[in-house]
Amino acid sequence: MGKIAVVTDSNSGITQEKGKELGVHVIPMPFYIDGELFLEDITLTQEAFYEKLASDCEISTSQPAPGEVMEFWDKLLKEYDEIVHIPMSSGLSSTCETAIMLSKDYDGKVEVVNNQRISVTQKTSVLDAVRLAKAGKSALEIKESLEAEKLESSIYITVDTLKYLKKGGRITPAAAAIGTVLNLKPVLQIQGEKLDAFAKVRGWKQAKKTMLDAMEKDLLHRFGGKKMSLLAAYTCSAEEAKSWKEELEDRFPNYTIDMDPLSLSVACHIGPGALAVACAKEVDL
Fold first, then answer.
1. In sequence order, which residues have a C-beta less than 8 Å from that of residue 262 and are 6 or more positions away?
2. Where are the beta strands (DSSP E) in the chain?
3. Treating both helix axes as pointing N-terminal to C-terminal, what angle do 119-134 and 139-148 enclose, rounded to 10 degrees?
4. Would the pTM count as exceeding 0.70?
5. What is the pLDDT of residues 22-66, one digit of tens each?
6. Which of 27, 43, 94, 120 lies deepest, with the highest CB count within 10 Å?
């Protein structure tokens, strides 16, 4: 049985510290803030990121430099026989496609998983990969298992402000202005590849209800009978996040809710104050 290294990026929400606990190797995502390079969870904390966001700094996401990714892999392959690399969804970034291209030089020793996930659902894939590796699966077998389940996940997000969706060009300035006056809250969804509109409702209470109803429908009908993990994420305060988790526990008493801050790559486009609920099918061993 070969020794497998599980690699992901910080879009998974797995911190460097948590990665060490899990035995997972985490590549930090780069951000440019007013032209200066920062690395998530290395030189850029969650707190500092939101301070920069609130200050209207110019923030753009990037992808790890190809040379640095290969150097990361080369170092691991001195200790491990194979690598399973789980980047963010190819529909949301070119990071995945770049990694797939780079892996072709590694004669099958590096398998890149393109399973269309981000943030808390990406984290679930990483945890599945760890379980599969411990069960003796090869890197290729792990990749095939994760990609076979790639559409077995769902995310709903609501935002507190339309400012960042407008800034990123996802809604027009006119729509943002009207939405702000009418207190409209968009509910967004990630069903595989992209961040898309799901619903537009009046007020925060209705937005949360819409997400809860959508998730209940998914669990009962779309994923009925499958073993699912229920997840929550946020860019709001810890107090608001705790309240959201309690609402989820009330609505879904048979599930244990795993909650994490949303990864900064997502937060960059939706801003502070957002809440999300997600689910992902657990891969069978």
1. 13, 119, 120, 157, 233, 234, 235, 270, 274, 276
2. 4-9, 24-27, 30-33, 36-39, 59-61, 82-86, 110-112, 153-158, 184-190, 195-202, 228-234, 257-261, 275-281
3. 140
4. yes
5. 999 999 999 999 999 999 999 999 999 999 998 989 998 889 999
6. 120
| CA angle 49–51–52, rounded 5-degree value | 65
Count of beta carbons in the 10 Å neighbourhood of residue 178:
13
DSSP state of 113: -
Tokens 């990361």 belong to residue: 72
The answer to whether the beta carbons of residues 240 and 275 sit under 8 Å apart is yes
| CA pair distance 222, 239, nearest whole angstrom | 32
Q: Phi and psi dihedrals of 233, rounded to 5?
A: -150, 165
Instruction: Give 150's Cβ-side CA count (13 Å radius).
Output: 18
* DSSP 8-state secondary structure symbol assigned to residue 192: S
- 81 token code pair: 């026989």
Q: Among residues of the chain, what percentage have pLDDT more than 70?
A: 92
Tokens representing residue 214 in the block: 């959508």
CB atoms within 10 A of CB 190: 25
